Amino acid sequence: MLIQVLKSKIHRVSVTEANMDYIGSITIDGALMDAANLIENERVEIYDITNGERICTYAIRGDVGTGIIGINGAAAHKVRVGDLVIIASYATMDFEEAKIWHPTVIFPKDNHVQ
């Protein structure tokens, strides 16, 4: 049996940009992506702590050290600059493997890796 488990999580970062005219996705500071074990184009879930919205999209690597968390495309109607969000990705694995799996979870300070 295969199940989905948490793979990566960036806990509580602030949205720095919202661009409705972009084709979609979320731009994430490359240092945060590396620390959270995320790769470009990986599917991610965005959980908006500020307003309760939940959105699924894919990650785009932003410039390292900028602290950018940019909501792009239609999602910019749901998530605003200044909102606090959680960014999570999931992996599919065998049930027995999942029992010993440990996700990568980071707790940035001011949108930067500590």
Topology (elements, then pairings):
Elements: E1 2-14, E2 17-19, E3 25-29, H1 30-36, E4 43-48, E5 54-62, E6 69-72, E7 84-94, H2 95-100, E8 104-106
Parallel strand pairs: 1-8, 2-6, 3-5
Antiparallel strand pairs: 1-7, 3-6, 4-5, 4-7
Rounded to the nearest angstrom, the radius of gyration is 14 Å
The strand line-up of the biggest sheet is 2-6-3-5-4-7-1-8
CATH architectural arrangement: Beta Barrel
List unreliable stretches of 5+ residues. Answer: none
**Total E-strand runs:** 8
Classify the fold: give the CATH topology.
Barwin-like endoglucanases
Broad shape? globular
Largest sheet: 8 strands, mixed
Mean residue pLDDT: 97
* Main structural class: mainly beta
- Beginning-to-end CA distance, first to last residue: 37 Å
Order of helices and strands: EEEHEEEEHE
| Count of individual domains | 1
Tally of separate helices:
2
Strand content: over 45%
CATH class: Mainly Beta
Helix amount, in percent?
A: 10-25%
Account of the protein in words:
It is built from two helices and eight strands; from the N terminus they run E-E-E-H-E-E-E-E-H-E. Strand 4 and strand 5 (54-62) form a beta hairpin. It is mainly beta. The chain has a single domain, classed as Barwin-like endoglucanases (Beta Barrel). Strands 2-6-3-5-4-7-1-8 form an eight-stranded mixed beta sheet. It has helices spanning 30-36, 95-100; strands spanning 2-14, 17-19, 25-29, 43-48, 54-62, 69-72, 84-94, 104-106. It is globular and about 40 Å long. The longest helix has 7 residues, at 30-36.
